[in-house]
Specification:
Helices cover about 50% and strands about 5% of the residues. A hairpin with a 2-residue loop joins strand 11 and strand 12. The longest helix is centred in the middle third of the chain and has 35 residues. The strands form five sheets. The protein has a four-stranded mixed sheet. Helix 2 runs parallel beside helix 7, helix 11 packs parallel to helix 13 and helix 14 packs antiparallel against helix 17. It starts with a helix and ends with a strand. The protein is elongated and about 85 Å long. The protein contains 22 helices and twelve strands. By secondary structure, it is α+β, with helices and mostly antiparallel strands.
Length: about 600
């Protein structure tokens, strides 16, 4: 005899959305779960996702401190510094404004994508093994964790068959956009909380729905617990990646409207309870997030605008039916259709698009299918930006994003990243289709899973390219920096870090951000009128030394340059200036620094000057 829950699921997967009903009085007490065949299957799926993530990132693992992602090493340096400064929370040395970069003004950590929650959670790993190890670990864990979370949502909430759930979850966690963003964008790939947020929203909706023809009131207890959980999940996600939270909220908003228009009876029944729960969740979240969000937009070194042009970061229409260069069957020639290797967000390929459309049509006019399809169309259209671009040529056709451009908060999101929402949306369609086919007794039982599997093979990812990274000086790795700068002091690496060449930030990351450095790679209010800009203004001495490092020519140093060098050192609050033997034109830099600050002191493989 089949259980009621399975009967509902067999009749219509949409009816199974939500949690199982709570146990009735007198039911058997809960026991420690046994390792059933189903649990073994779930464990196997989780292990396979972890193995796939490990295979994709295996180029980093022989030596995380000596290897780097070849396609985006600058951003990896940035995120390793983020992880290092976040880890100092475990030492009681942390604030939303840090002076460990851009000394003395500092950097607003909320304004930057600093993955604070991840950095704090993995701070023991960072402090024990170093930020590069934490980065390599998160690069894989984010992919596997996202896939596992979606798998659990599909099997527990949609109650889909495990094969169907695994195929859809694999696309959610390892789709082209996710693998592409793995090139150092940890804040975009850490999406393992998104299925939790979706589950809590669904739970809240069902708690507010007393059922057709029911005279019962909404389940207030479940509304409160769901709203509280949702507030907690949203609060944590803000400190993981706000852009992912924004994309999730927008996608759910579109789906809610589409579902409500399709099932108006549900809207009438559930709206009061659902609206009340969402109001409670919003209020609770604002209690936690009010100050951090104020700090982000109006606090010191905060910015209220986005700095990236939506015209530049628009998805090329042709990229939608093109295979990602990071897929096993992809071609590097298609890389020209986007801005860089970390933004292959729309590269789903023609086979997967065709199969997804076929699944949507085959599933029919079910409310969930209509909601998912509608959200996919909206988010895909928004990814095209203010003007439609086709094969690299900007057309005169306006894109739907033009309606949103310039709106507060929204202008901080890159249009092409709206396409990341299509991975879970497409994955959901595939899950529903394969699950329905597996319950069928006709040809669809074999045809649909085969078609979905073949389409997914075309976007199967290849391992992320890696390369040897430039070695750090023994002056840093050996801890010799302590001989010229105290913990919390400012060390001036020569040349200074810049957004295009942030490599000296690796010095600070290797020292667990125990000292600060001037300038660097970050977002701050250094644009026109205090608007957002990447990096800061170079001080005269920093600009002079950067020119020596670039060209090797030694400038004529007079009293004016020496006076300026002392003034800049005072501005930075510097304790020590250092140039390593590995610096470009290191000998020219050393002689220039001797003229500026006098004779230096040799420490390990670096020359230093106490200033």
């Amino acid at each position: 005899m089949t259980s009621p829950a399975r009967t509902a699921s067999d009749a219509d997967p949409d009816l199974a959305v939500g949690l199982a009903e709570p146990a009735t009085p007198g039911s058997r007490p809960a026991r420690w779960p046994e390792l059933t065949v189903g649990n073994r299957a779930d464990l196997l799926v989780g292990v396979l996702f972890l193995l796939l993530a490990g295979w994709l990132t295996h180029g980093l693992w022989p030596d995380p401190t000596g290897r780097v992602l070849a396609l985006n090493p600058a951003d990896q340096t940035l995120y390793e510094w983020f992880l290092a400064v976040d880890s100092r929370a475990l030492l009681g040395d942390f604030g939303l404004l840090t002076e460990r970069l851009n000394a003395p003004d500092g950097v607003n950590l909320m304004t930057n994508t600093t993955v604070i929650a991840l950095g704090v959670l993995f701070s023991p790993v960072t402090l024990l093994f170093g930020a590069p190890v934490t980065f390599a670990l998160l690069a894989g864990v984010n992919l596997a964790g996202t896939a596992i979370a979606w798998y659990l949502l599909f099997t527990r909430t949609l109650r889909a068959r495990r094969l169907a759930a695994a195929l859809g979850a694999g696309l959610c966690g390892f789709g082209p956009g996710m693998v592409s963003q793995s090139n150092s964008h940890l804040h975009m790939t850490a999406q393992w909380l998104v299925p939790v947020i979706v589950w809590l929203v669904v739970r809240l909706l069902r708690a507010g729905d007393p059922g057709p023809g029911s005279l019962d009131a909404p389940d207030r207890r479940r509304i409160v617990t769901s709203a509280t959980g949702l507030a907690a999940a949203v609060s944590v996600q803000v400190f993981v990646g706000e852009e992912v939270l924004f994309l999730t909220a927008l996608t759910l908003l579109v789906m809610t409207v589409a579902y409500a228009l399709t099932d108006r009876a549900l809207l009438r029944r559930a709206l009061p309870g659902f609206a009340g729960g969402m109001t409670l969740a919003t209020g609770l979240a604002l209690v936690v997030l009010g100050y951090p969000l104020w700090f982000q937009f109006a606090g010191p070194q905060g910015v209220a605008d986005g700095m990236f042009s939506p015209h530049y970061f628009s998805a090329d229409l042709r990229s939608w039916w093109t295979i990602s260069p990071l897929s096993v069957v992809g071609s590097d020639s298609s890389a020209r259709l986007t801005t860089g290797p970390a933004e292959y967000n729309t590269f789903l390929g023609l086979p997967l698009l065709v199969v997804a459309v076929g699944c949507a049509l085959w599933l029919g006019r079910r409310p969930l299918v209509i909601a998912v399809t509608g959200a996919a169309l909206v988010m895909g259209a928004l990814s095209l930006g203010p003007q439609v671009v086709l094969d690299g040529a900007r057309s005169a056709v306006p894109g739907p994003y033009a309606l949103l451009a310039g709106l507060p908060v929204i202008d901080g999101a890159l249009p092409m990243r709206f396409a990341l929402a299509l991975l879970p949306l497409t994955g959901t369609l595939l899950v529903l289709a394969v699950d329905r086919a597996l319950r069928d007794t006709g040809r669809a039982r074999r045809l649909v899973p085969a078609a979905v599997g073949a389409a997914l093979l075309t976007v199967f990812p290849a391992p992320l390219p890696t390369a040897d990274r430039a070695p750090l000086p023994e002056f840093v790795t050996g801890g010799h920096w302590r001989e010229c700068v105290p913990t919390g002091g400012v060390l001036v690496p020569v040349p200074a870090a810049t957004p295009k060449e942030p490599w000296p930030m690796g010095w600070a990351a290797a020292a667990d951000a125990a000292f600060g450095i001037p300038e660097g790679f970050f977002i701050g209010p250094y644009g026109r009128g205090g608007s957002a800009a990447m990096g800061t203004f170079k001080q005269p001495t920093s600009a002079l030394l950067a020119d020596v490092a670039r060209r090797g020519d030694e400038p004529v140093i007079g009293e004016e340059q020496r006076r300026q060098a002392r003034q800049d050192a005072d501005f930075w609050g510097a304790s020590c200036v250092a140039v390593a033997d590995t610096a470009p034109h290191a000998e020219s830099l050393r002689r220039t620094l001797v003229q500026l600050y006098g004779p230096g002191t040799r420490i390990a493989d670096a020359w230093t000057w106490r200033v």
